[in-house]
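Review box. Two proteins, two foldings.
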Amino acid sequence: MESILAFLVAARRCEVRELEQLARGCALVQAVSELVHRLQAERGCSNLHLASGGKRFEAERAACAAASAEAEALVRAWLDRADILDPAGQQAPAGGARLLTRIALALHALDGLPELRAKIAAGRGAPREATECFTLAIGALLGLVFEAADIATDPAISRLLVALFNLMQGKEFAGQERAAGAAAFAAGGTGTQSELDLLHLIELQETCFERFEAFCPPGLRSTWDAAREAMPLAELERLRRKLLAAGPGRTLPEALAEPWFACCSARLDHLRVIEDLLAGGLRAACATRIDELQCGPDDPEDLVRALAGQAGGATGVAELQFDAREPFGPRLTRSIVDVLHAQSCRLQAMSEELAAVRASLDERKLIDRAKGVLMRHHGLSEDAAYRLMRQTAMDQGRRLPDVARAVIELEPFLPGVS
């Protein structure tokens, strides 16, 4: 029976350590959230600057670039302080290999931004090129949030991370729409793909926000509803119609570049408030869960303390001396069995809830894998691969994840990589 208690204590301590690691990871997520927001603003201002031929918006662009650099410095400082590259692996988080790879990819993308900023300041490059570079960096940072959600072992924290990821992803698509529209208005016209691009981005936003609402904590739902009410959505729809009506060869009023940017920015600022509340609440949620584990009625440490008093002040399971005939006594024996049962039921419930929470993440991973298959075998871009699967799903009346699964299963029969 003492071995059972020792393993129960070790299991509970392991849970606490995982939550402590998760709390440290949530601090990184919060810093990443701020950096993504700053880069989104910089991307929009850079597009306005480039589309105007370098004649306007330079002061705004420079201010946004400085804010991005400051937020990036905080992320890098966190990585330096966290000591997650400890050779002994003592600080490595759960799922560390995947998370560390995501960090490396994000740092690689961030390392390319100074050169991009120098080109933009000199008036070189096109808005689309700048957008792609910023979007690549933001996508790599969002991958960190996705990975944190995917490796979280506590369902309550995982739900918050999934909600945050979907909100940040939807906000990123809204940011891409702001950047694309700003470039179109500032340049006085759109390209042949602009209408499709905008419709695609609008659809993706709504999908992400629907998923966010499915995981949004009840205490935040009223704040989210109020934020939606406060967004300038009517003005946004009016400006969207102007963009969508401006086909190839038709001009757009350049004077609408700033109203468009301001309208989209107001919406993004409301989204940022919700994002900040979620990101800021993650560490508090981890602390609450740790307190629940350490102060709950089924804490095996309480039994150790009770036995320590019974054994004259021993401090741990290994130090306790037991009578082989009646090692604990009937009352404590029943307590250990009760704790074992409670912990087993709790972990089973957590496992089932965690599986449900991760279903949406698994769908994203499935779609990403299928996009990779189409990109390799058919030479499609990532966006074109996604659109092909989405159109197939609509034409066949199937769910997008089901189409993605079929693509993956058919890979052995697809043409070889050229």
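Next protein.
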Amino acid sequence: MALRAVAEAFGTPVYVYDLDGVSAQVGRLRRAFPEAEPFYAVKANPCGAVLRRLVALDLGAEVITEGELARALRAGFSPERILLGGPRQDAGLVAAAQAARVGWVSIDSLSQAECWTRQAGSSRFLVRLNPALDPRTHEHLATGAATSKFGVPFAETAQVAEMLGDRLAGFHVHIGSQITEMDSYDEVFRQLGRLLERFPHVQTLDLGGGFAVPDFPLEAFAEKVRAFVGGRRLLLEPGRFLVAESGTLLTRILHVKPGSVKHVICDAGMADLLRPALYGARHPIRALDKDGPPEIVDIDGPLCENADRLGQGVALPKVGPGDLLAVAETGAYGLSMSSRYASSLRPAEVVLENGAARLVTERESVEDLWRLERD
């Protein structure tokens, strides 16, 4: 089904996910890493239809909240293939994970380790190392930087590992998102190597995800990883890599404002796609069914914020009110980071499968804005 037909049938703004494209990315990952066990990072896109496709493809799930855990279980991920990570892990989340009998837990701090050592259970534990390096990505995405809140500094990692005793299964590193430079992992492998010397019984390494979209050199990276990991068990946590390029945000132009900067005002903006405002992210944007010489415009949202934009300095043919734009590479961190700022209504979600489109998440209504309120 053509994107224009999707917009006409379901309105705009609307997220469209190509499930067959998701399957293709999983296939690419498995060809590069046939020995790895992938755990999909649910935060990238928690849409139930996407999760169920990944269940059918036999992936595990990486979750960081009670809500993500519930979504993963609802979609059909087996508990032993669920990995709980992240900085939270408070009493409620720990209790939910124990009740579900999740298979893996990544420990993010000394206090988390103290919490878990007071609990019984069969989960296998990883200690997340913060390697304190520069992963050369946006500062908000640099989870392996020394100033990041994530993970345990190298000097303290052994202490946390020893606290876990025979429940320690391995070590975990996730240096950031939109990683493009493979040599960032040289220091990671150096630190992991020292930990493996101290804990020779450890047989599991989790190298996270964060592969840049598009064009990450996955096959070359796999060779580098394989040379270090050897015969140990390898876990990966891809999120954006699996779903970003299979997603498109469709938005309709409301107004065009000429001037020294030509502003194209659309019905989608930062409430629907936060990444351009939050990270300065650049998404490919094209006009549907329009040709002609390009002009440089800003693609802006409908809200009263200068940061409310989808793109700056974008080359488009001449467009006007009513025209449709397709914002590409939005299958990750799109609707999952959306908000109700200015009482915006969250968009619908549609999936494409074998050429057919179906609605999987309804557009919010104004009544949804106050559905949970109590006078």
